[in-house]
Automatic annotation (TrEMBL):
The keyword Transcription does not apply. This is Chalcone isomerase domain-containing protein. Keywords: Signal. Residues 1-18 form the signal peptide. The lineage of its organism: Bacteria, Pseudomonadati, Pseudomonadota, Betaproteobacteria, Burkholderiales. InterPro entries: Chalcone_isomerase. PROSITE patterns: PROKAR_LIPOPROTEIN (PS51257). Pfam families: Chalcone_3. The keyword ATP-binding does not apply. Residues 57-167 form the Chalcone isomerase domain.
Length: 171
């Protein structure tokens, strides 16, 4: 029994400390750019993918390095606000609340230099990493597409950043 408990602990610890690169092993940097509001840089984002152009049929990763402090609640609320804005049809309130709870489990309060990553898993969902440690996995393809749409949807609030992330802008 003690050996079984030790094995479970080792397996759990390995999963909890899994590096995001294991999810996109052959990925290369597609593009990167800064997101600023009123002249203040909030973060630098990078898109990593095994395939260019990036699409929802293959795994890809969004890597964000924060320049300013933001609470996880603010990150989740802003995410939900953008998901609602980008939706082609109203999203039920219970779905939005579930998605917000998913984000709160995945996110941590961030400060300058902190990193969050999200790995898109086609037809499955998304894995979130705080630093290099797995913080949450959400098995919900609709949530995953809506979440990544914040950056990838053509109607994003940051069209220049979108172009940079997708490798479509040359600077």
């Amino acid at each position: 029994m003690r050996a079984l408990a030790a094995l479970v602990l080792v397996l759990w610890a390995g999963a909890a400390c899994a590096d995001w690169r294991g999810d996109v092993q052959a990925a290369k940097l597609v593009g990167e750019g800064d997101f600023s509001v009123l002249g203040f840089q909030l973060y630098r984002a990078q898109m990593w993918s095994e395939r260019v152009p990036v699409d929802y049929d293959e795994r890809f990763a969004l890597h964000i390095v924060y320049a300013r402090g933001v609470t996880r609640e603010r990150l989740a609320d802003t995410g939900i606000s953008e998901i609602k804005r980008l939706a082609s049809a109203p999203i039920p309130a219970d779905t939005l609340e579930r998605w917000r709870a998913n984000m709160l489990r995945a996110f941590v309060d961030v400060g300058p230099g902190d990193q969050l990553r999200a790995v898109y898993l086609p037809e499955k969902g998304v894995r979130f990493y705080a630093g290099d440690h797995l913080s949450s996995e959400v098995d919900d393809p609709a949530f995953a597409r809506a979440f990544f749409g914040i950056w990838l949807d053509p109607s994003t609030r940051a069209p220049t950043l979108r172009k940079h992330l997708l490798g479509m802008a040359a600077d």
